[in-house]
Amino acid sequence: LAKEDTGQLLETRYENMRQTVNQIWKMVQFNEDTIDHWRLMLEGLYEELYNVNLTLYNTRDIMRAHEEHNKFGDDYVELCRTIYNLNEEKDLIKQRIASIVDLIA
């Protein structure tokens, strides 16, 4: 198989596997324990997301203060890196939330 065909085949297999897992998941009867488990996981993830957003907003405020005073030195660069890393962390948390929601929806 050509490289493109192999990639397409793997994508198709992955999608089929994902659909099968979703179908099996939907057939499982929810009980109180599983509902509590997913609720607690989602609550924890939402709390993480809240904390990351709060840190992100505070960091952006500090960055704006640097911009107002034309301070674009090492501290400013570090703030930019921090914002980049916080956005990466935020995206990962949102992906985890979406994965759980996809499973239980």
Using brief descriptors, characterize the structure shown:
105 residues, 89% helix, flat, single chain, mainly alpha
Can you describe this structure in just a few lines?
The chain is mostly helical and 105 residues long.
Note poorly predicted spans. none
What is the number of beta strands?
0
Structural class: mainly alpha
Query: Rounded to an integer, what's the Rg over CA atoms?
Result: 21 Å
Largest sheet: none
> What proportion of the residues form beta strands (DSSP E)?
under 5%
Arithmetic mean of pLDDT = 84
Q: Percent range for helical residues?
A: over 70%
Order of helices and strands: HHH
Number of helices: 3
Q: Cα distance, first to last residue? A: 37 Å
* Overall geometry: flat
Q: What's the structural blueprint in terms of helices and strands?
A:
Layout (H helix, E strand, L loop, with lengths): L2 H25 L4 H37 L5 H31 L1
Helix pairs in contact: 2-3
